[in-house]
């Protein structure tokens, strides 16, 4: 599904440069649910950005679904992002002047689907996250948990191969966080491959595998017994 | 470009920033408003000048005579120069091709009567070409013709108002009008755009007048039009040559300004032409200057909008928006704002011209209007201007990196 070899990335800071990723090797199979953990500055977000094609590595190899990802033009990156990836952000990143349905349907617009089809699919995914009744509401009329569910529906809308979640519960209280995790687990049960960046141990424990990053290298990579979030809800 | 969803996106975005869009469009509205009004006023001035020349063909040359002011070739000053038929023939022969129409004129004032109605009028005794020189429009009957000249017939062509005055509600054609005790047959009635005075005139054959009033071959004035293929400069050269030859013919000093006077409308037409095109240039410069200010304003606002929407653009890119779709959204928004703002200005300008137009006539501005050509030209200019205004911001937007846009939470 996803294969990374000897990935390096550094950022220029003034005259010197900051070596953020120092040779990452990682491979993720289809249907996995992986937590990427690390303190701030460990390089976990950079890694996720590279996997999400929002950033490019300096060195190393990245293969996604048998497609080597390198030397991307902006246009190509846009197409790959649209086709392969679904993003879930800590701050939801909904477009605040579009209602829930329009937000969910936006990736479909960039796929070139007709409006009728977009509405149909958008409603289907909203129903899946239990917010069909809120389709016409603007993001600021929704609670944090609802916003994140709309964002998940949007990430699912284009039917991506891989879901990338960057601190998906970072802005939510514990109860809502567990609800969101329960939902992500359910998606994983249905076969979706999910990568979650987090620094919360309880969230990481709800995944099937934990990868720990320290100072740009993988210190630990282990499979764990998944804690079901549904028991706390 | 004509994708309905794209328009939906653009309207959503404009709607979101209504006040700001309004303010940024205002400069363009003002620019076009100013331009439309100035343009209309220039048109109005041109109309006034055109009207001033309506009575006479614009390629007219008038030749008049007077007393000499300088002694020349042994002849004393104060000598009266008198044109005769032979001078008319001389010009016709000497300049041939260069002359389009030519006529001599004799002026007389007469007391005219028909039955019980009496009035006094000016008579112009002329050649047939006079009709074309004065833009005379014969509505009933005919004009003076060569046969009248040959036969020295006692016929007249009278103005519409002469017919009104003397013949009241009956028709004058074919009836006999009494001029200073002599009966003339009315063979035609004419209209003239030159105003009421031009329609209170009576035309008669020049030969008839020469025989009846003095039995000589005197002429008061010679009018001609030069060949319209000549440009202003050629026409002016032609009239100076004409002046020199006539002065020589009458032994008048080269520097004598009164004895032989040649007035060429090309001189005046050239001046006016230069003035109106100069005015047009000024209006264009002012209009474009203001429009550029408007474009800069819109560009500024669009850059601001792009900056404010950086995050949104980042989200869109993360969801798979291509750079092209980002560029087109910003570009179209800019074009749309410019176009709508511009049209508002144009319509306002046309409305204002319509409102104040009639009251401007005393300032020599007649019927100030904006032409269809201007509207089409303005539309194209506005689209281009909007494109220019949106280009930089759009480029800036397309270069936004989603990772940077999404970082600062």
Automatic annotation (TrEMBL), chain A:
Belongs to the ABC transporter superfamily. Macrolide exporter (TC 3.A.1.122) family. The keyword Cell division does not apply. SUPFAM superfamilies: P-loop containing nucleoside triphosphate hydrolases. It comes from Bizionia paragorgiae. Residues 2-233 form the ABC transporter domain. GO terms for molecular function: ATP binding; ATP hydrolysis activity; transmembrane transporter activity. GO terms for cellular component: membrane protein complex. The keyword Translocase applies. It comes from the Bacteria. Keywords: ATP-binding, Nucleotide-binding, Translocase, Transport. Pfam families: ABC_tran. CDD domains: ABC_MJ0796_LolCDE_FtsE. This is Putative ABC transport system ATP-binding protein. PROSITE patterns: ABC_TRANSPORTER_1, ABC_TRANSPORTER_2.
UniProtKB/TrEMBL annotation, chain B:
It is a multi-pass membrane protein. Keywords: Cell membrane, Membrane, Transmembrane, Transmembrane helix. The chain crosses the membrane at residues 21-41, 279-306, 326-352, 372-392. Its main location: membrane. Residues 285-402 form the ABC3 transporter permease C-terminal domain. Residues 21-235 form the MacB-like periplasmic core domain. GO terms for cellular component: plasma membrane. Belongs to the ABC-4 integral membrane protein family. This is Putative ABC transport system permease protein. Pfam families: FtsX, MacB_PCD. InterPro entries: ABC3_permease_C (IPR003838), MacB_PCD (IPR025857), Macrolide_Exporter_MacB (IPR050250). It comes from Bizionia paragorgiae. One of its GO terms (molecular function) is transmembrane transporter activity. It comes from the Bacteria. It is found in: Cell membrane.
């Amino acid at each position: 599904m996803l294969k990374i070899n000897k990935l390096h990335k550094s950022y220029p800071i003034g005259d010197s440069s900051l070596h953020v990723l120092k040779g990452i090797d990682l491979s993720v199979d289809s249907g996995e649910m992986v937590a990427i953990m690390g303190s701030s500055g460990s390089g976990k977000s950079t890694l996720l950005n590279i996997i999400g094609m929002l950033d490019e590595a300096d060195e190393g190899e990245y293969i996604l679904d048998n497609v080597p990802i390198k030397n991307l033009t902006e246009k190509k990156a846009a197409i790959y992002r649209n086709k392969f990836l679904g993003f879930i952000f800590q701050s939801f990143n909904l477009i605040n002047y579009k209602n829930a349905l329009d937000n969910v349907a936006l990736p479909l617009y960039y796929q070139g689907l007709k409006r009728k089809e977009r509405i149909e699919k958008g409603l289907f995914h909203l129903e899946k996250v239990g917010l069909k009744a809120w389709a016409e509401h603007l993001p600021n009329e929704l609670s944090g948990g609802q916003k994140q569910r709309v964002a998940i529906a949007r990430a699912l809308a284009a039917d991506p191969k891989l879901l990338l979640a960057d601190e998906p519960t970072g802005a939510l209280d514990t109860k809502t966080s567990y609800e969101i995790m329960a939902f992500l687990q359910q998606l994983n049960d249905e076969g979706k491959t999910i990568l979650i960046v987090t620094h919360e141990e309880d969230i990481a424990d709800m995944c099937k595998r934990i990868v720990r990053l320290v100072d740009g290298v993988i210190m630990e990579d282990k499979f764990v017994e998944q804690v079901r979030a549904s028991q706390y809800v | 470009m004509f994708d309905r969803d794209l328009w939906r996106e653009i309207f959503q975005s404009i709607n979101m920033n209504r006040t700001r869009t309004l303010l940024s469009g205002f400069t363009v509205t003002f620019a076009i408003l100013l331009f439309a009004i100035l343009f209309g006023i220039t048109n109005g001035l041109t109309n006034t000048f055109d009207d001033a020349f309506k009575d006479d063909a614009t390629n007219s040359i008038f030749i008049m005579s007077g007393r000499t002011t300088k002694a020349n070739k042994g002849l004393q000053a104060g000598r009266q120069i008198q044109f005769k038929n032979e001078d008319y023939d001389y010009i016709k022969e000497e300049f041939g091709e260069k002359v389009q129409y030519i006529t001599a004129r004799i002026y007389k004032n007469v007391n005219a009567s028909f039955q019980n109605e009496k009035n006094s009028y000016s008579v112009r005794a002329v050649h047939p070409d006079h009709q074309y020189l004065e833009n005379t429009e014969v509505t009933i009957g005919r004009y003076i013709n060569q046969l009248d000249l040959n036969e020295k017939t006692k016929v007249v062509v009278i103005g519409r108002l002469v017919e009104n005055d003397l013949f009241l509600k009956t028709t004058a054609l074919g009836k006999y009008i009494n001029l200073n005790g002599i009966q003339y047959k009315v063979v035609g009635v004419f209209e003239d755009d030159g105003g009421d005075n031009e329609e209170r005139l009576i035309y008669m054959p020049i030969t008839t007048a020469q025989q009846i009033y003095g039995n000589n071959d005197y002429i008061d004035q010679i009018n001609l039009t030069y060949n319209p293929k000549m440009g202003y400069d050629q026409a002016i050269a032609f009239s100076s040559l004409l002046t020199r030859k006539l002065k020589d013919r009458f032994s008048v000093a080269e520097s004598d300004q009164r004895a032989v006077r040649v007035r060429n409308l090309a001189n005046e037409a050239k001046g006016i032409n230069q003035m109106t095109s100069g005015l047009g240039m000024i209006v264009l410069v002012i209009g474009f200057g203001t429009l550029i200010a408007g474009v800069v304003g819109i560009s500024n606002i669009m850059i601001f909008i792009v900056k404010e929407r950086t995050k949104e653009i980042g989200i869109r890119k993360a969801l798979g928006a291509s750079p092209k779709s980002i560029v087109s959204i910003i570009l179209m928004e800019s074009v749309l704002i410019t176009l709508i703002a511009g049209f508002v200005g144009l319509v306002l300008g046309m409305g204002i011209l319509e409102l104040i137009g009639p009251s401007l006539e005393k300032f020599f501005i007649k019927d100030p209007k904006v032409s269809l050509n201007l509207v089409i030209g303005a539309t194209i200019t506005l689209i281009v201007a909007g494109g220019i205004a949106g280009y930089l911001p759009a480029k800036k937007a397309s270069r936004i990196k989603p990772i940077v846009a999404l970082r600062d939470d």
